[in-house]
């Protein structure tokens, strides 16, 4: 079985989880539980793809844009099950599924799955750098989902629409609190990823453009976390800024690779 088929299977489960979530007239518990189970199958399929691909290339499957997208999606779902449920915000899964489907679709149609000639064996330092970076992106992805949920909640309040999804969403205060916590954790993990990259000499092997881009993303989140303590920033603008930050993360996966001709 071609390992790429696992990506199609994972996308099918992500699509099913999305559809199940938005089916009308279902008990809230059954809707949430069914969506989580289908998202769990998405995670299993992605795990199998990464394992199979790792056996083929004999290293962490992050050698091209296609693999990076799959790994990014895997990290997002893994972080949801690891962190999202501990915050008692299982409704995050309703937004994690469509985002996962979106990422898998972009990866399938807009990235190339070509393997460069790798003569040197993989080192544990590079594997650690990759793993911690993916976890940071997954945490920041969950933060962006919280920011999106905050904006949806605010829209419902402004339009006085208190039906449907409004009753399932957490309070704006809870979303804002979790958003800040996720951003802090994601920033710490991103910092560890950058430090591990420099300490092991990995950044000496990549283009300066990618290094500069990594620092730009890091500074964006540093400023985002520092601004509320220094200046008055509305919760709405903070939520939008968290969404923009994750767009920068996604651009670091695709646009930079495209510009460098390495995706």
Q: Biggest sheet: strands, sense, closure?
A: none
- What is the count of DSSP helices, taking H or I runs of 4+ residues? 8
Distance between the termini: 24 Å
Question: Helix- and strand-based class?
Answer: mainly alpha
Molecular shape: globular
Low-confidence segments: 259-263
Radius of gyration: 19 Å
> Percent of residues in helical segments?
over 70%
Mean pLDDT: 79
Strand elements, count: 0
β-sheet strand percentage: under 5%
SSE order = HHHHHHHH
Tell me what you see in this structure:
With 263 residues, this protein is mainly α. It has 8 helices and no strands. Helix 1 packs antiparallel against helix 4 and helix 5 packs across helix 8. The protein is globular.
Q: What are the salient characteristics of this protein?
A:
globular, disordered C terminus, 263 residues, mainly alpha
């Amino acid at each position: 079985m071609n390992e790429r088929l696992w990506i199609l299977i994972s996308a099918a489960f992500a699509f099913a989880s999305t559809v199940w979530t938005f089916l009308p007239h279902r008990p809230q518990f059954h809707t949430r539980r069914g969506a989580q189970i289908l998202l769990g199958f998405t995670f299993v399929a992605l795990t199998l793809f990464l394992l199979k691909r790792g056996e083929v290339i004999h290293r962490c499957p992050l050698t091209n844009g296609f693999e990076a997208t799959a790994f990014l999606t895997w990290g997002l779902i893994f972080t949801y099950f690891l962190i999202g449920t501990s915050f008692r915000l299982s409704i995050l899964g309703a937004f994690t599924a469509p985002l996962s489907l979106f990422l898998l679709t972009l990866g399938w149609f807009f990235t190339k799955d070509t393997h460069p000639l790798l003569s040197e064996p993989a080192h544990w330092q590079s594997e650690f750098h990759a793993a911690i970076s993916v976890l940071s992106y997954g945490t920041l992805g969950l933060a962006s989902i919280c920011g999106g949920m905050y904006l949806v909640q605010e829209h419902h309040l402004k339009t006085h629409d208190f039906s449907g999804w409004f009753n399932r969403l957490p309070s704006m205060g809870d979303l804002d609190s979790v958003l800040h916590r996720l951003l802090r954790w994601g920033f710490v993990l991103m910092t560890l990823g950058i430090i591990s990259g420099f300490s092991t000499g990995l950044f000496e092997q990549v283009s300066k453009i990618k290094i500069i881009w990594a620092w730009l993303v890091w500074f964006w989140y540093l400023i985002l976390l520092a601004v509320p303590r220094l200046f008055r920033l509305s919760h709405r603008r903070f939520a939008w800024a968290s969404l923009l930050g994750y767009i920068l993360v996604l651009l670091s996966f695709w646009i930079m690779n495209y510009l460098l001709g390495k995706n």
